[in-house]
Amino acid sequence: MPAADRYATVLDPLRMRYARSPLPAWLADARVALLSLLPARWRALVEGDDQRLCLRRQGDEVELLAAAARGDTVLGRLPLDDETALDTARQRLDDSATPRWLLLPASLVLRRRLLLPVAAEARLREVLAFELDRQTPFSADQVSYQGRILARDANGQQLHVELLVLPRARLEAELQALGPMADGLAGVDVEEPDGRRLGLNLLPDADRDARMDPAARLNRILAVVAVACLLGTLLLTLHNRDARLDALRAQVEAANQEARQARQVRNQLEVSVQAANFLATTRAGRPTMVEALDELTRRIPDDTVLDKLAITGSNVVMVGQSRDAAGLVPLLQASRLVSEPALSGSVQADARGGADRFTLTLNLVQPTAPAPAATPTSTSTTEAADAPRP
Question: Among 12, 43, 52, 323, which has the highest number of CB atoms less than 10 A from its own CB?
Fold first, then answer.
């Protein structure tokens, strides 16, 4: 199967669904509404102007009409018996890119209205070819025919189609009557008595002029360039967004790294502060080493000799010899820097020196500050208040 047929097989059902949906009518109404909002000059530019040069045979003359969306303009008439004038006009028209169409009156065309199933829309021309034998006395090779859809019955799943048939002999007669002007025709349309055109092309495909309008070619090139620029803009925008996102992620990562470092420094500072506070609290909870040694030196009598003095935190262990080991406990209890003095183990008597060997333990405490004494002014005031009045 050719590629075109494969694409048609896929696209035809989609095209029919789109045609049967209310979307085309809605888009047409939306287009009209949007165009009505524009000024007249802008609206003309947006709508464009599909220009055609229409040829209408009237007796022995051919009338030239400039057909556009704004209306028809009569350019002039040429006599059909003047071959030189017709050939000159055709050469000038060939230099122009405006397509030329022949207008035939509706009386020359055989018209039939048909009621077909919706499924026939995908192969409408083939279906109409079979209907020619039933609706007309001609075969498909003797006529040029086209069909147009008048209405779609969504509930009944039917199509209202009009079949237009033009015998080839009649078409050839009309083309021969035009003489040189028949060369280069782009199509043959049918004109109603009221001047309305059906918008069909009854000219066989082999006889149609295949020239392309330079403006249309330029418009297609510009459309392709515009689409390419749009895609390039979208890709560039996505690239810039990705680059910006990567930069933001790098900034966020750097900020997170700085935050982690700041937390580490803060934690280290908190640990240092806690350690310093602990040392300060511990140091404030017991006397200094100098104060403890001074207090022990003043409290221990001269007949006591210390062999070992161990101070661990607030715990003090003294090992030595004394003539009155038991009397050391009351002496140390009177100190404000010592608490819970006690002899550890038994006191051993030394027969050679007459002294007792002892082991004594105690705790060092921070002395409490004495209560402030009453001020002289307060005392004098109290005494003056208590003194009897004369």
Answer: 52
The amino acid occupying position 278 is F
Residues 128/144, Cβ–Cβ less than 8 Å: no
DSSP 32-83: HHHHHTS-HHHHHHHH----EEEEEEETTEEEEEEEETTEEEEEEEEETT-H
Report the chain's terminal Cα–Cα distance, integer Å: 143
Q: Are 208 and 187 in contact (CB under 8 A)?
A: yes
Between CA 257 and CA 320 the distance in angstroms is 61
Q: Which two tokens stand for residue 82?
A: 């003047």
**pLDDT tens-digit map of 131-141:** 888 888 888 88
Distance CA 257, CA 135 (A): 86
Non-local (6+) Cβ contacts of 74 within 8 A are 63, 64, 65, 66
**Which CATH fold would you assign to the domain 50-211?**
Nucleotidyltransferase; domain 5 (3.30.420)
Q: Can you tell me whether residue 190 is helix, strand or coil?
A: strand
The structural domains of the chain, with segments of one domain joined by +, span: 1-48, 50-211, 289-364
Contact 209, 90 (CB under 8 A): no
Q: Which CATH class is domain 289-364?
A: alpha beta
Q: Among 3-7, 12-16, 214-218, which is the least confidently predicted range?
A: 3-7
Tokens representing 284 are 């404030």
Q: How far, in Å, are 230, 239, 247 from residue 233 at the CA level?
A: 5, 10, 21
d(CA 289, CA 284): 12
Banded model confidence at residue 49, pLDDT cuts 50, 70, 90: low
Which residue in the block uniquely carries the two structure tokens 């100190």?
Answer: 335
* Residue 273 pLDDT > 60: yes
Q: Is the pLDDT of residue 307 over 80?
A: yes
Count of CB atoms situated within 10 Å of the CB of 175 = 17
* C-alpha distance from residue 155 to each of 20, 122, 151, 183 (Å): 11, 19, 12, 46
φ, ψ at 331 (rounded to 5°): -65, -40
Return the beta strands (E) in 107-157 as ranges.
110-117, 143-153
Helices assigned H by DSSP within the chain: 3-20, 23-36, 40-47, 83-95, 124-135, 168-178, 214-285, 289-299, 328-333, 376-386
Q: Is the pLDDT of residue 228 over 80?
A: yes
CA distance 253 to 84: 85
Q: Which tokens is 5 given?
A: 């047929």
| Backbone φ and ψ of 359, nearest 5° | -130, 120
